[in-house]
Fold:
Amino acid sequence: MPEQQDIILDVRNLQTHFFTEDGVSKAVHGVDFSLNRGETLGLVGESGCGKSITSLSILRLIASPPGKIVGGEILFKGQDLTKKSESDMRTIRGNEISMIFQEPMTSLNPVYSVGEQIAEVLRLHQNMGRKEAWDKAVDMLRLVGIPSPEKRATQEPHELSGGMRQRVMIAMALACRPEILIADEPTTALDVTIQAQILELMKKLQVEMGMSIIMITHDLGVVAETCDRVAVMYAGKVVEYTTAQNLFANPRHPYTVGLMNSLPRLDEDVEELQAIKGNVPSPFNMPVGCRFAPRCPHATELCNTKLPELLEYADGSKVRCWMYTSEWDGDTKTATEVGV
Amino acid sequence: MMTTQANPTKKPLLEVKNLKQHFPIKGGILGRTVNHVKAVDDISFTINEGETLSIVGESGCGKSTTGRAILRLDEPTSGTVLFEGQDLLAMSKKQMRDMRKHLQVIFQDPFASLNPRQSVSAILGEALAIQNIVPAHQRRERIIELLGYVGLRPDQIDRFPHEFSGGQRQRIGIARALAMQPKLIICDEAVSALDVSIQAQVLNLLKSLQKQFKLTYLFISHDLGVVRHISDRVMVMYLGKVVEIADKKSLFDNPQHPYTQALLSAIPVPDMSKKQERIILRGDVPSPINPPQGCRFHTRCPYAIDRCKTEVPGLTSLHDTHQVACHIVQV
Structure:
């Protein structure tokens, strides 16, 4: 595990709940990970696992009410973001931590030119003058690989293709040279050939600017392609946290294993996919024990009744599963097979 | 390989010949047609009985338009679509309505394609009533049977779409398609909106139903992993044209067209031990309103020569089960 000073963001037992008419939804309930300088961390999981809520919590963009961060710490360079005032957060957002979203069309203003929108960020956060900000905006468009940036800067979002728009979003997010970029499914809406272009661009800019990236995705392919470290989330909790190398070579949590087995492969043929049975539990009605227990092939009495803690290994990797503890009441052979 | 075009024991179920779908663009104060979007431009292919043919390609390549044109959900501009030898495009509206029970479709978004104010029994009952294949008093029984095929419980029959998860809703969509006892099912991005763990369940279901009811699938998808899993043969489209069509093994192991190669190499593989060389295409897909002259891929093709800019390549056979439309590939 890295030295303490390398860690730029340390999230500890984050809990974000939503207080609705139907009850309390514990959308994020136990998220732990740390992000190192210059590294990419993947936040992986299926719909409703809380990965987007986690990222919005980091930027304190959770609408309140109904949402509220009810517990845990988000340490950014040692300072707890959950305790910052709104005006402090405003200087951090965009400047030090910025974010790009899945659908660039809905995050861009349709009636302003893209150049103006990037310049606005610079004028707001860096107190640049009009002319200076515009020139910098054109520079940013050039940096993200948009051809003839002077002309493109004057165009409105609808005049650009999906891939171009995502490049504009990246230009806007990186305009103030943030230390952390949070990318929420940045390529999910794009075709694969365009996705390849955008991922390549993000990697190149990360090296040039030395920034850290949190890559939120449901696509394990994108994880293998871009991430150094991965936190796998299920039903509001981190269930496994390890290096990307380890995750693919030796996945520990049964949910991680299940995800990999249900993925149709490009390099081999199987007659039947090993699907994970059942559905994700409702956030209003979570199982009392391990949240994956109702779908887990190895679940025992212990798993169904008691929630496992996040277990930390000597190398810093973590797993939330009873199989890896001495209390495990199931077949020890199963546990050995999956590699305790 | 189970299915090949040349295999004489295989009977073609659907033959598409020179299909064109050009959508007019109206403009000016008189609303005259000023141009056309050439969404599908002269494509031909065959689907044999009992096989799965997939159409892959990126947004705007014409894969969904092809599916819709076959069903005449949009009237095609020209071409023939022979279903068991009968031309669907020459039929009257009424004849076509009768034919539709043999050709069913499953759409991407199960929530948008199910009426939120109808219960499952009403949704499936309506389908049965329109085609009138089951007498009214036996319908409920038949609906319960259908739910069983797709892995839903009989007690869920009176529930509404919002009470189901995304995967379950897609199962209802599949049950509705099965209700007609169809011969061909067109699956238009049928699993694209689902999470991988649920997607795997639905893919397994589609495969087992195919065996059980001897179904033929036209499977439209942008996800090559899914396509590899479900298909017997695969057709790759780019800007309204077929660029390559082959049996699955040949296409994935030995892709010939530069576009197919780039498409396959662009997919991130969830395995860190296998880092493949990536071909990154420059630029975007050109507009289908004024597609490039010659080969439509030449503007992005790393190997393009002068001939590609002027002459449209036709499909030529590499071997029995593998055809490619490219000037560079030496056949």
